[in-house]
Amino acid sequence: MPSNPLLGVCFHWLGGLASGSFYVPYRGVKKWAWEVYWLVGGFFSWIIAPWLLASLNTNDLLAVLREAPPSALWWAWFWGAMWGLGGLTFGLTMRYLGMSLGMGVALGYCAAFGTLVPPIFHGEFASKVLGTPSGRVILFGVFVCLLGIAIAALAGLSKEREMTEAQKKETIREFNFGKGLLVATFSGVMSACFAYGLDAAAPVAELSARHGTAAIWTGLPKLCVVLLGGFTSNFLWCVLLNVRNGTGYQYWGSVLRGVFPARESETIVETALDAPGEEVAAAAALAGAPARAGERVPLLNNYFWSALAGITWYLQFFFYTMGETQMGEYKFSSWTLHMASIIIFSSLWGIALREWKDSSGGTRWKLAMGLATLVASTVIVGYGNYLGVEPR
Fold first, then answer.
1. Per-residue pLDDT reduced to its tens digit, 217-269
2. What is the pLDDT of residue 311?
3. Is 291 helix (H, G, I), strand (E, B) or coil?
4. Which residue of 202, 203, 239, 285 lies most exposed, with the fewest beta carbons within 10 A?
């Protein structure tokens, strides 16, 4: 199937919409600790959805995975696990830099490293990126994306400055630029590991194509392996929190035991990819009052909303792999498109939820400029890929 970068950009926008929206169904979860609903949702994100959709759309999925080079499977799993571990430090980024600056720095590193490291690793940066008109246009699009992230972060900083002193203290508990920059760097680089996992799993997609799978679905088996790594690290951390916080019984208990704190005081672990969606949910008043012993827990309701959130999370990479198949020789540019789309749609959610209603005209203008720049970056990257498509 010939490449179609315009269609690829549209698929990446759909992935960004899913990523920017996935936290919203968690609003329906009541009286569960974060680690409980995150693991339940994650089971659908990282195990059920990827294996089910890959099985439905891949010719002989198990044979493809059996024939895949063990090194490809290992590195895909490893980078997926490292992506999951990246979430362990993202909360510190928020603590030291605040939501807007912390997210902006982490997302910037994530976008840059996730896009540029694969071609550098393969020794293609000079020849394929710098050495071709298509590659240079894509590289310019990456720069424009980073500029858009920076402008969006400035808009968020401007909004934070317009808060009351009490609101500022809630937003930035222990501001420390030096520590924050180091932690945001680590978190952003670790969050980019997902891109490395997808790149390492490229032989799996090639095998899937040789087994007769339609080109647009060949990336789905890669997700089975990368997300298994992500499940591993998230599972271990959530179980650790279950033990530490005494919340393991909540998976099956219909009645709360003991006082359960409000969500703001919980330990929340997420990567730079997840955070924009969480910010959307926070703006939509996800949190509730503390729950107390003896209160009934709506188990079926909680499982339903957690499953919906998890499947929505998975859809970001379902559409990502579809978009990647349309980018021709420059598949690495998919990561920039994905990152830009996440911020675009999470920001639009924030506008729809009136998160910016009390901001000044200057702050809203900065937000509009950031969004316009990010949209422009997706167009530029898409055009760069179009230049690289072989004429029919």
1. 999 999 999 999 999 998 998 999 899 888 889 899 888 776 555 555 555 66
2. 96
3. strand
4. 285
Over residues 360-382, the pLDDT tens digits come to 888 889 888 988 998 899 899 98
Collapsing DSSP states into helix, strand and coil, what is residue 260? Answer: strand
Q: Which of 65, 62, 113, 54 has its CA nearest to residue 86?
A: 113
For residue 200, CA distances in Å to 1, 91, 190 come to: 23, 28, 15
Could you tell me the CA-to-CA distances from 213 to 7, 204, 205, 271, 293 in Å, in that order? 19, 12, 9, 32, 52
- Report how far residue 197's alpha carbon sits from residue 161's, in angstroms, rounded to the nearest whole number: 38
Buried b (16+ CB within 10 A) or exposed e, 319-358: bbbbbbbbbbbbbbbbbbbbbbbbbbbbbbbbeebebbee
Q: Enumerate residues 6+ apart whose C-beta is below 8 A from 274.
A: 19, 23, 87, 313
- Band of the pLDDT at 51, cuts 50, 70, 90? very high
